[in-house]
Amino acid sequence: MRETTGRQRRVSTKLKAAAVALLAIFAFGAASATSAQAGERLDMTFNDSWIKLPALEPLGLKPVHALDPSDGKNLTVAMGGTLDPATGAFASKAADFTFPEQVFEVSPGSNITLSINALNDFTGNYNKSTGAFTVTLPLKLTVDAPSFAVKCELRPLTIPLSSSGAPINFAADADPPNPKAGAPFAAPSNAGAVNGSWTNVTAANAVFGIAAYSKDEATMTDDCKTLIASLAGGEDTSFDGSIWLGGTSKVSTTVDPTCPEGTTGTYPDCVPIDNKTPYAVSKIKLSPSKGKLKAGKKVKLKIKVTNSGETDGSSKVTIKSSNKKVKAPKSVTISVAAGATVTKTIKPRCPKKAKGKAKITAKAGGKSGKAKFKIKKAKKKK
Questions:
Q1: Would you call 314 exposed, middle or buried from its count of C-beta atoms within 10 A (0-12, 13-18, 19+)?
Q2: Which of 67-81, 284-298, 344-358 has the lowest mean pLDDT?
Q3: Which of 119, 210, 368, 369 has its CA 20 to 30 A from that of 268?
Q4: Cβ atoms of 334 and 303 closer than 8 Å
Q5: Distances (CA, A) of 140 to 16, 31, 105, 247, 338
Q6: Tell me: the pLDDT tens digits for 22-80?
Q7: Closest to 15 in 3D by CA, of 132, 111, 159
Q8: Which pTM does this prediction carry?
Q9: Please, what is the end-to-end C-alpha distance for the chain in angstroms?
Q10: How far, CA to CA in Å, does 320 sit from each of 279, 344, 362, 363?
Q11: Left (φ > 0), alpha (ψ -120 to 50) or beta: where does 366 sit?
Q12: 271: exposed, middle or buried (C-beta count within 10 Å: 0-12, 13-18, 19+)?
């Protein structure tokens, strides 16, 4: 275990107070997220929140009313996303998690800045009939305190929230009880609450440093671990806590987005529609179309392919000879630009023993062209 005894005693009271503030904000920030499925939309707004940190109570730091609807600040945490109407399941992308950056003055001219983000995608469930709601959030908290030259990250912070949570007492031992239980977001008011607790957040396994203030990552990590260990009572002691959030829910019908006019695909993967006519062979012509073949010679035969489409393409042109003695290539591939005609020359061979007639046919794309030849006997040598 890392030796932290001397350093723990040197952590300032101001810095401990800063830690309390950041964890309070972290607690009610844990409920801010959006889900990503299709069907209906669920929007939840929380304007009341309590946070309890048992490890800090010996220092005189009581449970915190993190969001107080009576303080006139009108602070809220919102969660919204799509809801599966059949199962009540919803899924949130990590990128959909949003929470405004918070800046707190812990002493004149001394501020800390807090940023809260989701580490991974996460899921939950909402029952429209009963208003029951659950979600488990995997979060990370970044703390930037320039006056103390520390920039720390706590992760992962896995926080389960439930509207069926048993009462949690958000009061110090010497104070009157302040029980806060979960409650379903039932109609007609749709007002309810969720609560939950987190654990296994220790300096040893969940605290990391971010290089800043002329410190590299390793040095900053060491300082951050020392700070959290001093607050929790040891490097391997979990910085446990509990939270309660009260607010309202709203379910509304959504329309799945579609690709805009002139595009196709499944939103958001839309691509422009190609209105060009496809590649099409409209004509094949052989030239010459008729003539004489001299036995024992080759003849030049031109194959002309016309593409009437507005898209470039290519065709495999098959070639056949009606005379077994007259040999031609079995096929040729011809590439033709949009609206163009391309000529390819082949050289059928007519051996000396060939006689009669020969018809050569070229076919591609349902079109064909023909050339007819009479075979002229080879002259006998004298």
A1: middle
A2: 67-81
A3: 119
A4: yes
A5: 20, 13, 22, 24, 56
A6: 444 444 443 333 333 347 888 888 899 888 877 666 655 678 887 889 988 888 888 88
A7: 111
A8: 0.57
A9: 112
A10: 24, 16, 7, 9
A11: left
A12: exposed
Measured in degrees and rounded to the nearest 5, phi and psi for residue 178 equal -135, 70
Distance CA 134, CA 100 (A): 23
Maximal C-alpha separation, the chain: 134
Q: How far apart (Å, rounded) are the C-alpha atoms in residues 343 and 310?
A: 19
Task: State how far the Cα of 320 lies from the Cα of 359, in Å rounded to an integer.
Answer: 8
Domains and CATH numbers, the chain: 5-253 (no CATH), 281-376 (2.60.40.10)
Distance CA 33, CA 81 (A): 8
CA 144 to each of CA 2, 15, 19, 211, 333: distance values in angstroms, whole numbers, following the listed order: 23, 12, 11, 11, 67
Cβ contact 93:80 at 8 Å: no
pLDDT value at 331 more than 90: yes
